[in-house]
Amino acid sequence: MTTVGLIGLGAMGSGMAASLRRAGHAVQVFDVRREVAEAFTNAGGTAHDSLASLGAACDVVVSVVVNAAQTESVLFGDGTTPGCAASMKPGSVFVMCSTVDPNWSVALESRLEVMGLRYVDAPISGGAAKAASGQMTMMTAGKPEAYALAEPFLSAMAAKVYKLGDSAGAGSKVKIINQLLAGVHIAAAAEAMALGLREGVDPAALYEVITHSAGNSWMFENRMAHVLAADYTPLSAVDIFVKDLGIVLDMARASKFPLPLSSTAHQMFMQASTAGFAKEDDSAVIKIFPGIELPKGKA
What we know:
Elements: E1 4-7, H1 11-22, E2 27-30, H2 34-40, E3 46-47, H3 51-57, E4 60-63, H4 68-76, E5 93-96, H5 102-114, E6 118-121, E7 124-125, H6 127-133, E8 136-142, H7 144-157, E9 158-163, H8 170-198, H9 203-210, H10 218-229, H11 238-254, H12 260-277
Helix pairs in contact: 1-6, 8-10, 8-11, 8-12, 9-10, 11-12
């Protein structure tokens, strides 16, 4: 019986682990917050107190951490604590769900192959609610033998599992392009709402009209609802788009490809971050616009 482990019980990872359990899998988990891992396993499954222990116990390890640096630590340790790669059995599969530089993902596949491990490049999209309901999207690439082990678990976590290539990199490239659009759309939505506020338009009325007009986007509808509610609780933080749009620009710069809208959006998120809104919801990028009074939400 193939066993699955999941590392990182944050907003996305906790929902993904719940989806795996709902599909009937006995999920083994690790999180640096021991109490979070133990709380998850109250309804079944196993919490491991080390990455090495989880790696040794599982045929498929799903990593849901923030970035490439954290993924490196999960796999290879941090210099004092070993990661999971050294203890994983030959032929086991590592599923990487972070948003990373595609070239780094390509190199990681080669590094794991040397260790006798298989790899699926599998960044995710959809947000915490879709992760919890098993309705998110996975943009994957990997060799057939890696899919053979991992596919039942991928299908349990996501409504859409796109197979984009038989080697690493393609999944991460598509995710980066998705992040280009997401970041630009949030920045444009904030700019539009800010202009409306500046011109004295009722923000609730503006929201109602735009969400039923051709100018609407999923990001306008979703993120400007946060602005109307004055709720900047970070479902996806400003600094996520500082990072992700930075990766977008790095990828394009390597091939000397111009991205004028992405560059502008990146600067807007950078400005919001340095102004003190780094950990707030990414809709807080609207706070960089001067001379506007933001909605205060319901009293």
